[in-house]
Amino acid sequence: MQSLEQPGARFLLSGASGLLGTAVRNGLLHSGTEVLQLVRRPPLGPREVQWFPERADAVTAASGLEAGTLEGLAAAIHLSGANVAAHRWTPAYRREMWRSRVESTRALCAMLRTVERPPRVLLVASATGIYGDREDEVLDECSPPGAGFLADLCREWEAAAAPAREAGIRVVHLRFGVVLAREGGALSKMLPAFRLGLGGRMGSGRQWMSWISLEDAVGAMRFLLDDERMAGAVNLCAPEPVRNAEFTRSLAARLGRKAVLRVPEFALRMALGAMADEALLASARVVPKRLLDAGFRFKQPTMETALAALWSPGREQDSGSGQSGTAAK
């Protein structure tokens, strides 16, 4: 299959300042493509375009774009969205998560629908949270959505891309598991406690955790850009999900620490409310069936290989003295 990443090809990217967006942008630029970044703040350079996704229609959402800017794009990648685990899920923050995902996707797809030469493919973020809390059930892309706020959010998030599909654009919903990287994301927030020997399992520790290394997440996205067979939902998670207790032991061992503590469920619920049940205690044993069937090869298919890669020679090694060797974002 021919790669869309050709010198001079133009890609549209939202969420370029985040962990995934930064890695994707750097990979695209390295291949010689042009990356146009959608930003909500005033642009800092010619490759940034301000947009207003909270506005109701394509014309006002795209008022920062000059005529013809979206014509002839090779692909669009939509990764923006308020962090699910950044705040307690107050009514105001639930509305912000909804706006930043559902409404921004709807606005972007409405914009793309208006151009005469739309992109060939749209990759739009989603999450394994769509499956809800399913205990030990093995979940693939054919599994129905679950229940709860996060599952409802993901379902509406994916539905919001309908205008792009109607315009003939191949749409891929990226159902991300937890993305593992030392330089950002959930793992970087856990490291200080684990380095101090204070890391521990969440609740019973029996809940399944679906995860993917940052390298494999970016690799899978670039694979999906080019494989024209792939449309609809695709699970972006490693083929071997782990229970929370196993993840805790593996991370502690990698840091030369013990993980004997346990964070009780009631304490998590008191501190975090509904987010504790849906984001930390929920069990989702998700597998990447469509990626595997399509021939994608994971570089870090197991938790051990993923953690080993993060602390491999060539990276600044963790000294065990509480000093972090994280890479710059």
Can you describe this structure?
- With 329 residues, this protein is α/β, with parallel strands linked by helices.
- The chain has a domain of 206 residues: Rossmann fold (3-Layer(aba) Sandwich), CATH 3.40.50.
- The chain is 36% helix and 17% strand.
- The protein has twelve helices and 15 strands.
- Helix 3 packs parallel to helix 4 and helix 9 packs across helix 10.
- The longest helix is centred in the first third of the chain and has 23 residues.
- The protein is globular.
- The two termini are 32 Å apart.
Could you provide a short overview of the structure?
With 329 residues, the protein is α/β, with parallel strands linked by helices.
Structure keywords:
disordered C terminus, two-stranded parallel sheet, Rossmann fold, seven-stranded parallel sheet, alpha/beta, 12 helices, 329 residues
List low-confidence stretches.
Answer: 316-329
Q: Please indicate the percent range of residues in DSSP E strands (runs of 2 or more).
A: 15-25%
Q: What best-fitting shape do the alpha-carbon axes yield? A: globular
Looking across the biggest beta sheet, what order are the strands in? 3-2-1-4-5-7-12
Mean pLDDT: 87
CATH architecture term of the domain at 10-180 and 213-237 and 289-298: 3-Layer(aba) Sandwich
Number of E strands: 15
Query: How many strands, which pairing sense, and closed or not: the largest β-sheet?
Result: 7 strands, parallel
Structural class label: alpha/beta
Radius of gyration: 20 Å
CATH class type of the domain at 10-180 and 213-237 and 289-298: Alpha Beta
Q: Please report the number of helical segments.
A: 12
Instruction: Give the CATH superfamily of the domain at 10-180 and 213-237 and 289-298.
Output: NAD(P)-binding Rossmann-like Domain
Helical residues, percent? 25-40%
CATH topology of the domain at 10-180 and 213-237 and 289-298: Rossmann fold
Succession of helices and strands = EHEEHEHEEHHEEHEEEHEEHEHHEHH
Q: Give the CA-CA distance, first to last residue.
A: 32 Å
